[in-house]
Amino acid sequence: AIITGFTRGDPDAEYQAVDYDDLPLLGSEAAALFESFAEIPYRIVNTAAIARRFFAVQPDSFDQLVLITDFDLLGAPFGAFYQGVRNEVAGIGLGRFDFSFAYGSTGRLQGFLHMNYLNHWPVDPNGFSFLNVLGQEAEHEWGAYVRALLNGAESDLLLGRGLAHWSFFFDTDGSVMEGNG
To answer: 159: which DSSP letter?
Structure first.
């Protein structure tokens, strides 16, 4: 399969195609874009290889990259996910880390959002939709990791699913990071 993409990272630049069909390898590292195994009914996406190919022809001027595939990953254990690449923010309940070099970035890239197949998402813009999930995945860069201090001890009672979303019982005024209103 040929995978192509385009970006408009620089508002004054022309659109430029990115061809992901023939990825360059870094040293002796073999990095496939997609792998499929008989035991696993879904494809594994190598986001670092995709990002390196993207940055081979684009400037390192992006905080997040978003991937939308042309195939459905319904068999996968996720609908979409955020993959943290770099975090230098303290005090949000998330440790500091920097894997930007592995993604071909010199330190600007913060995360990679894999949004699955666009047709995977319902069309209802007022309910659960692609835009809701995109907002939630982008928010994972900063949100829903904070612990509370209860009776002098750290508690994760504010957190819900995967300790990376707000608890259903936390009044978040309808945050895309879950919780309630």
So the answer is: B
Asked if 109 and 138 count as a contact pair (C-beta separation under 8 A), the reply is: no
Alpha-carbon distance 129 to 41, whole Å?
Answer: 24
| Run of H or E including 19 | strand 16-19
Residue showing tokens 């940055």: 55
Q: Are 17 and 4 in contact (CB under 8 A)?
A: yes
Q: Looking at per-residue confidence, does 72 or 137 come out higher? A: 137
- Say whether pLDDT at 23 is over 60: no
| Diameter over CA atoms, the chain | 57
CA torsion through residues 5, 176, 165, 90, sign: positive
* Contact between residue 93 and residue 163 where contact means Cβ atoms under 8 Å apart: no
The DSSP annotation for 73-108 comes to: -TTSS-S-EEEE-EE---SSS---EE-GGGGT-SS-
pTM: 0.72
Alpha helices of the chain — where are they, by DSSP H?
47-57, 130-139
Phi-psi region of 27 (alpha: psi -120 to 50; beta: other; left: phi over 0): left
Look up residue 170 and give its two tokens: 């936390």
Spatial CB neighbours of 63, under 8 Å, sequence gap ≥ 6: 108, 109, 110, 111, 141
- Structural contact between residues 42 and 75, judged by C-beta atoms closer than 8 angstroms: yes
